[in-house]
Amino acid sequence: MLRLLFLSGSLRYASSNTHALVAASMLVPHCVVVEHYNEIGELPHFNPDLEDKLPARIVDLRTRVNEADGLLVACPEYARGIPGSFKNMLDWLVGSPDFPGKPVALLNTSPRASAAQAALKLVLETMSATLIPEACVTLQLLGKQTDPVAIANDPISRETLRQALQAIVDHILAASSETSLNAAAMHFVEGRLACRD
């Protein structure tokens, strides 16, 4: 089973970003287990002086991110940027040794939120995340019902989400297969070298 962690950048109860992630969780392939991280608003303000003795909530955040095979992020745009609470979470992940290389897909719920998406990509690339272009999609939710069931039942939104989720799964499985092949090749080479000794 693959584990995906869904992260919403909005603290609003009726957030279209959160609802889109819930809708996505209804459409994941059978091989996927989804966890929603809903504690971004509870995280302490980022302080690098705390890296030597991390707060319990940060340890929990990093553990959940580390245990996930991939992340699906839906983040709104505020004042042409990333919401402060979400950026605060990302700042805490910068110091995580397990974050570099983490597969990440971005789900945008508004075509107008281009500035935040661009900023988010820049931050994640700086953090050495592995963005999956085929899984970074935009839903046309402006002027539509944004409850999770309506999103999941809308033909266009449903197909967009399914394709993005499949792209995440395909990427993770391909990367895992490549890692296994590389490990097998290294084991073979080491065996040949040992035989020469």
Describe the structure in your own words:
- With 197 residues, this protein is α/β, with parallel strands linked by helices.
- It contains 6 helices and 6 strands.
- Strands 1, 2, 3, 4, 5 and 6 form a 6-stranded parallel sheet that branches.
- Helix 3 links the parallel strand 3 (70-74) and strand 4 (103-108).
- The longest helix has 42 residues, at 155-196.
- The chain is globular, with a radius of gyration of 19 Å.
- 31% of the residues are buried.
**If helices are DSSP runs of H or I spanning 4 or more residues, what is the number of helices?**
6
Which percent range describes the beta-strand content?
A: 5-15%
Distance between the termini: 41 Å
Q: Over the alpha carbons, how many angstroms does the gyration radius reach?
A: 19 Å
Instruction: Please tell me the overall pLDDT.
Output: 91
Helix coverage percent of residues?
Answer: 40-55%
Total number of strands: 6
Spell the H/E element sequence: EHEHEHEHEEHH
Biggest sheet: strands, sense, closure?
A: 6 strands, parallel
Low-confidence stretches: none
Shape: globular
- Give the helix/strand class: alpha/beta
List the SSEs and their pairings:
Elements: E1 2-8, H1 16-25, E2 32-37, H2 56-67, E3 70-74, H3 84-94, E4 103-108, H4 114-126, E5 130-131, E6 137-138, H5 148-153, H6 155-196
Parallel strand pairs: 1-2, 1-3, 3-4, 4-5, 4-6
